[in-house]
Amino acid sequence: MASGTFPPQMLPPGSPADRVPTAPPGTIFVLGPEGGYAVPPRRYTLLFGRDRDDVHVPVGVDDPTVSRRHGVFTCTGADGDWWLVNTGNLPIELPDGVLMLTGHKRILTAGYTPLVINSSKQRSHLVEVRLVDEDDRHPRSTSSAETVDPETVYELSPQERLVLTALSRRYLEGHDAFPLPLPWEDTARLVNASPYVTKSWTYKSVANTVEDVRERLHRRGVRGLLRDEVGEPVGATLSVNLIRELLKTATLSAQDLELLAEQD
């Protein structure tokens, strides 16, 4: 489909982000609670925010902490790239946990991207974005189909799973609002006390095993797992990023705590 046959158009409220109309590659769909807007790749500026009379996609219209023009999508038309700029006071949170502050600019990647504006009134406002690419296949409804595993599940050896379960114990238990990885020494102690352990572990062997997994996932394209990618001071950042990736892909789950079932 040529972009000339798909003009900019409004989308009605309740439009599902996973079933947007057929559109040429480079078309952007932006959806809010009151409807949305779609624009093919061309020179265009698409606005979202609280002022429904002055934006294409209203969001947070009853929340004064959301800015009237909270964000802008722009396309120069030359290369078909779409950019997001935060023009509001509150940050825009991306799926990877990155916070776009006022003035931050970021190019959009193809596919689905949810944007969240977290209000100071403990409210969250969602803006759904879908950018069509050459291989875009709009999925059909699967409401009656059986649940399948996520597309990305990383292979772990039994001992790697045991080590990473111990390292991630606070995350898997769900008791802490802001969990952190266990220290290496505590991780080794927990692993050694497991009924499934096959050798004696030290804090160094635990750290080396975690590093091996980080490097393996890095080779598969996961960012934020190497020291030179995150900058100093590193602290626990590498382990945090690894754990988040394993949890997001359901490679680790709360069921893995059974490996530590005999621990107090």
Q: Please, what is the average pLDDT?
A: 88
Q: Fraction of residues in helices?
A: 10-25%
Query: What structural category characterises the helix and strand content?
Result: alpha+beta
Any idea what the CATH architecture of the largest domain is? Sandwich
Description:
The structure is a single chain. This protein is an alpha+beta fold and 264 residues long. It folds into 2 domains: 129 residues, Tumour Suppressor Smad4 (Sandwich), CATH 2.60.200; 103 residues, no CATH class. The chain is built from 6 helices and 12 strands. The strands form 3 sheets. Strands 1-3-2-12-11 form a 5-stranded antiparallel sheet, with no helix packed on it. A 5-stranded mixed sheet has the order 5-4-6-7-10, with no helix packed on it. It has a two-stranded antiparallel ribbon with strand order 8-9. A hairpin with a 2-residue loop joins strand 2 and strand 3. Helix 1 crosses helix 3 and helix 3 packs across helix 4. The model has no long low-confidence stretch (mean pLDDT 88).
Give the secondary structure arrangement, pairings included.
Elements: E1 9-11, E2 28-32, E3 35-39, E4 44-49, E5 57-58, E6 71-75, E7 82-86, E8 92-93, E9 99-100, E10 105-107, E11 111-118, E12 124-131, H1 158-167, H2 169-173, H3 184-192, H4 203-219, H5 227-230, H6 237-248
Parallel strand pairs: 4-5
Antiparallel strand pairs: 1-3, 2-3, 2-12, 4-6, 6-7, 7-10, 8-9, 11-12
Helix pairs in contact: 1-3, 3-4
